[in-house]
Amino acid sequence: MGSIFDSEACSAALFYPRSDDRPGPSSAKDVFLDVEAGVRLHARIHPNPHATAVLIHFHGNGEVVADYDGFASNFAAAGVTLVSVDYRGYGKSTGAPNYRTCLADAQRVVVEFDSRLAISAERRLPLVVMGRSLGAVCAAEVAGAHLPQVDGIVVDSGRATLEAMAERGVPGGGALLDEADYAAFCPLRKHARSSLPLLVLHGGADNMIPPSEAERTFAASGAVDRELVVIPGWGHNQVMWAPEYWQAIARFVRRVVKADLSGVGNLQPP
């Protein structure tokens, strides 16, 4: 029996792709990555000449990269060059999304854009991977893959438990999970085997994904440098307007950059 996450019904329930062909700001650059025959992912790079790090951003469900054009200045102020990525079937990306290819694509994107955005063969900026809501599973995948290109992970408003994902995809799906599913898809297991610095962000008033999911991600992490920031009063789709959200990202980026410059893989918590 195959995984429930490979079924078309599960993919239709989990993903809400939305096409979008809006051009980006004149300062941004649209690029495409071929991930398999006939499938190209769209990403938008917002260059920041003062960046101390690169941040690859996997957005939430129903969102597209253009939705983050207005936040590019916030990311720049936090010290990063923003690379926002669309999943298969979202924005200008082709193909159809499912859980398995979403995770595999996340690794391909990280490897590709680390190479594209390296300053030189001698010096590269530290690389942070961030996943918001649905994108949190991509961040977990990258964390657990031990990719040498990655220096830090940010999880924003994401689910931690595989059972919750399965139930959303298929009624009663949690009871159908087997060990192969947990090995391939469980975010908590992936965070547990990662020592990368981790920032977990969540709105305290999130009624879509409860803050307890953020607490589980934080508790599972194998990182020495890990920080949990639950922002009271902010909901799932509003938390990025909270000043504390951007302050936490900027603080985390500074720690990752400091660790990279010192050659230390992990710092003690602040």
Shape: globular
The low-pLDDT segments are 264-270
Strand content: 15-25%
> Structural class, from secondary structure content?
alpha/beta
Strand arrangement within the widest β-sheet reads: 1-2-4-3-5-6-7-8
CATH fold annotation: Rossmann fold
The pLDDT mean sits at 91
Could you characterize the architecture of this molecule?
It is a single chain. The protein is of the alpha/beta class. It has a single domain, classed as 3-Layer(aba) Sandwich (Rossmann fold). 34% of the residues lie in helices and 19% in strands. An 8-stranded mixed sheet has the order 1-2-4-3-5-6-7-8, sandwiched between helices. A hairpin with a 2-residue loop joins strand 1 and strand 2. Helix 1 crosses helix 5. The radius of gyration is 17 Å and the shape is globular. The N and C termini lie far apart (46 Å).
Summarize the structure in short.
The protein has 270 residues and is an alpha/beta fold.
Feature tags:
single chain; 270 residues; 8 strands; globular
Write the layout of secondary structure elements.
Elements: H1 8-14, E1 29-36, E2 39-46, E3 53-58, H2 72-77, E4 80-85, H3 99-116, E5 127-132, H4 136-145, E6 152-156, H5 162-169, H6 179-185, H7 187-192, E7 198-203, H8 211-220, E8 226-231, H9 243-262
Parallel strand pairs: 3-4, 3-5, 5-6, 6-7, 7-8
Antiparallel strand pairs: 1-2, 2-4
Helix pairs in contact: 1-5, 3-4
